[in-house]
């Protein structure tokens, strides 16, 4: 499982660099989707640890590379309607809800060893859809190309990437231990499923209202609000898990801690990284936040959970989110 996280640090940027310099972003996406299917197919022949290691490495190397490029392609299609990104992204959340409900029911009637077949079908579906999407180079900018190194000297961009890393690190204990934590405090599997569903549905609502929220409040306010709500959410989970009302209320905050945050972060990345840096910008966001940040979050979460307990672990998560809030308060540009 660590292989998947490790390739998420390297693969997005490498493929982003290739896509930006070759200019054929959709072609890169199609190649990546095809090699993802081929790489994952090797799991049906896995009979040893090292073969499985190799299969997961190849699969995740291409899988982690194509999503940031699809984000860049989406913004190219939207052109000046960038605020409508969340209306596209909401379908990913709906897909997640559909998958956990339908596949969950499916696995109750069949052996879990058939799960790789389901995954392969879904990956093949992704490959097919890449041929239903048209390419788009995006809006042409009159300014000359600015090197990535010079772009990264901008303190506002560095601050944003650091904040994104801290946000994903703060989510580590939640993604890793939330189900176990809730179950150990008396919640049944069905109720835990409801809690996860509440979080994702809240995220869907946030994505649906993002265009209005951006026009009404602006990116900076929404970013700060999402980071501050993250601190509150982790403290509620860490200290009030036994209270079903507080626990449910905390799940609703997923609307801001992921839905609003992700839409705003993607918009800022698109704003800062233009032209030939567009794909590399989306890839850096993915690598730094979901890659490095996710790895750090899982790592410290595991050590603290065992040595200090859940409340201390989620307190550290709340602190990380608050540090991200302070950094963003000081360095985020006003709209």
Description:
The structure is a single chain. The protein has two domains: 2-130, no CATH class; 148-331, Growth Hormone, Chain: A (Up-down Bundle). The model has no long low-confidence stretch (mean pLDDT 87). The longest helix has 30 residues, at 49-78. With 335 residues, the chain is an all-alpha fold. The chain has helices spanning 2-22, 25-41, 49-78, 85-107, 115-130, 148-151, 155-184, 189-217, 219-240, 244-252, 254-272, 278-307, 310-331. Helix content is 81%, strand content 0%. The protein contains 13 helices and no strands. It is globular, with a radius of gyration of 20 Å.
Topology at a glance:
Blueprint lengths: L1 H21 L2 H17 L7 H30 L6 H23 L7 H16 L17 H4 L3 H30 L4 H29 L1 H22 L3 H9 L1 H19 L5 H30 L2 H22 L4
Helix pairs in contact: 1-3, 1-12, 2-3, 2-5, 3-12, 4-8, 7-11, 7-12, 7-13, 8-10, 8-11, 9-10, 9-11, 9-13, 11-12, 12-13
CATH-assigned homologous superfamily of the largest domain: MFS general substrate transporter like domains
**CATH architecture label of the largest domain:** Up-down Bundle
- Helices, by number, come to 13
* Mean model confidence by pLDDT: 87
Helix percent band? over 70%
Envelope shape: globular
Order of helices and strands: HHHHHHHHHHHHH
């Amino acid at each position: 499982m660590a292989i998947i996280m490790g390739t998420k640090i390297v693969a997005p940027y490498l493929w982003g660099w290739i896509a930006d310099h070759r200019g054929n972003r959709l072609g890169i996406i199609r190649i990546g989707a095809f090699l993802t299917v081929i790489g994952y197919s090797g799991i049906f022949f896995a009979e040893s640890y090292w073969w499985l290691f190799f299969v997961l490495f190849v699969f995740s190397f291409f899988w982690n590379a194509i999503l940031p490029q699809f984000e860049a392609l989406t913004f190219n299609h939207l052109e000046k309607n960038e605020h409508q990104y969340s209306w596209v992204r909401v379908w990913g959340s709906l897909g997640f809800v559909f998958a956990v409900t339908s596949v969950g029911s499916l696995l109750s009637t069949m052996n879990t060893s058939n799960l790789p077949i389901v995954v392969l079908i879904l990956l093949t579906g992704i490959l097919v859809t890449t041929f239903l999407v048209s390419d788009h180079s995006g809006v042409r900018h009159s300014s000359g190309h600015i090197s990535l190194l010079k772009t990264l000297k901008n303190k506002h961009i560095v601050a944003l990437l650091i904040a994104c890393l801290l946000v994903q690190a703060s989510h580590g204990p939640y993604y890793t231990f939330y189900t176990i934590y809730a179950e150990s405090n008396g919640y049944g599997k069905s109720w835990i499923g409801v809690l996860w569903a509440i979080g994702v549905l809240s995220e869907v609502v946030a994505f649906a209202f993002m265009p209005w929220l951006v026009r009404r409040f602006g990116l900076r306010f929404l970013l700060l609000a999402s980071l501050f709500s993250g601190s509150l959410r982790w403290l509620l989970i860490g200290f009030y898990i036994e209270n079903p009302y507080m626990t449910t209320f905390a799940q609703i905050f997923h609307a801001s801690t992921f839905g609003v945050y992700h839409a705003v972060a993607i918009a800022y990345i698109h704003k800062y990284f233009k032209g030939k840096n567009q794909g590399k910008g989306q890839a850096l966001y993915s690598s730094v936040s979901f890659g490095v940040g996710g790895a750090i979050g899982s790592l410290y979460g595991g050590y603290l959970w065992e040595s200090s307990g859940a409340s201390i672990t989620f307190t550290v998560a709340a602190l990380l989110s608050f540090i991200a809030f302070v950094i963003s308060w000081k360095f985020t540009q006003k709209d």
